[in-house]
Amino acid sequence: MDLYVSNYAVLHIFGIDIWITETIVNTWLVIGILTMVGIVFRIAMRNPETVPKGLQNIAEIVVETFRNFVLSSVGPGLVFLAPWYFAIASLMLSSVFLSLLGFRSPTADWVTTFAMAFSTFFLMIAMGIKVKGWVGYFKTFLVPGWPFLPINVIGELAKPVSLSFRLFGNMLSGTIIIAIYNFITPWWASIGVPVLLHLIFDIFFGVLQTYICVTISMSYVNDAANG
Amino acid sequence: MESIQALSIVMVGVHIAAAIALLNGIFTTFGQGNITSTAIESIARQPEAAGEIRPAMFVGLAMAETSGIYGLLIAIIMLYANPLVNKFIEVAFKP
User: pLDDT 10s digit of each residue in chain B, 95 long?
Assistant: First the structure.
């Protein structure tokens, strides 16, 4: 049963142990695949044309759709964040589809999701300060009155935790259910049914949770900047 | 022998605790049912607003799902990565 993230090697650098886990290897696999897709698109669009065709058409459709999605969520002032959210969304989606190839999905490890949620946390604070200024942003912690300061601070700190646990819990529960199914059934039962399980738990929940994760992290940034 | 009995009692407690932690799925499901039924009602009343209601419904569903996921994570930690059980094994079966 692959409930635990397995560890491949331990590096000792300057007295610090660095564990090379399955998650790190799979994440670099995803990064490699995405980089290669990016290079292919770059080469195909070496001479961009006014009337797009082929790969340029696909790229323009995807980028424009995502840009409109970001524009409707965070408003025109922060639409320059669209490439960052597109990077996060494509990384999550690719790790969802990586689990179809038999690898463990990198988002089924809390480390990955917490790293993404923590970057959203910093982005939230930075955009709040950028739009409202230092004084204006820290006044939002005193909203109904000064006694609510600790509650507001805890509420802000809980945001990255809940954001990361939501994706992690969904992906881990799918992984565990598939592992338990493979463990308790005889070999002939694992011919067709796991396809259905992967379809539900990896594709459906994974894509839905990616969409929800990006939407909620955009609404957090929107609350901090424009709320 | 006594420590094995004590360990079995600890394991029973751990499994019961995991089951209780998963019971919050009842309330999560009720909340999600409420959200979905309200969204369907408003779509039926105003079908042209379906494109705006559906994303809001999904975000609300995800928000309501958070408590259920917390319960699931607590159950998983209880069963597979319980620090108290490891501590108990360390103390009770000390060579």
Answer: 677 888 888 889 889 999 999 999 899 999 999 999 999 999 999 999 888 888 888 888 888 888 888 898 888 888 887 887 877 778 777 76
How many Cβ atoms are within 10 Å of A218's Cβ, its own excluded? 21
CATH number at residue B20: 1.20.20.10
Query: DSSP secondary structure string, A90-119?
Result: HHHHHHHHHGGGTSPPGGGSHHHHHHHHHH
Residue keyed to tokens 């490699």: A32
Task: Give me the domain span that covers residue B54.
Answer: 2-90
Q: How far is CA A185 from CA A7, A180, A188, A189, A190, in A?
A: 27, 9, 8, 6, 7
Res A4 pLDDT > 80: no
Is B95 among the domain residues? Answer: no
Which distant-in-sequence residues (6+ apart) come within 8 Å of A67 by Cβ?
A79, A82
Are A173 and B55 an interchain contact pair (Cβ–Cβ within 8 Å)?
A: no
**C-beta of residue A205 within 8 angstroms of C-beta of residue A174:** yes
Indicate the number of domains in chain A. 1
Question: What is the domain range of residue A213?
Answer: 7-226
Interface of B with A in 30-89 (CB under 8 A): 55, 58-59, 61-63, 65-66, 69-70, 72-73, 76, 80
